[in-house]
Design goal:
Elements (H helix, E strand, L loop, with lengths): L11 H14 L4 H8 L3 H8 L7 H10 L24 H9 L6
Helix pairs in contact: 2-3, 2-4
């Protein structure tokens, strides 16, 4: 059973951790993964440690070798009013009702 769940990755360190976890789930050594990708073990070590300069094509190849997929989606932004101010969220409304009134 895989431990990986859909996760939003925001930086190279998180990608590295995801690769390491999945490699370990599949009981692959760093050397075995390196052979599948066509790189040296040192490259896998750098990827897993969050190297921000890892070649994108090779990162995608590593993800593919581990049966992982990358996707790109638009982030949801908070709604704003016509004058550009952020519209209060449902939580903002709840919290404003919970605030105690100030001194009069």
């Amino acid at each position: 059973m895989a431990l990986m769940k859909d996760t939003t990755l925001r930086n190279s360190e998180q990608i590295g951790r995801a690769v390491r976890l999945r490699r370990q789930e599949k009981s692959l050594s760093q050397s075995a993964l390196a052979v599948q990708i066509g790189v040296g073990r040192k490259w896998v070590i750098h990827l897993e440690s969050g190297n921000p300069k890892a070649e994108l094509g090779l990162v995608l190849k590593a993800l593919d070798a581990l049966d992982l997929q990358a996707s790109v989606s638009e982030r949801e932004r908070p709604a704003s009013t016509e004058d550009g101010r952020l519209r209060p969220s449902r939580l903002d409304e709840v919290f404003s009702r919970l605030q105690r009134p100030g001194p009069k």
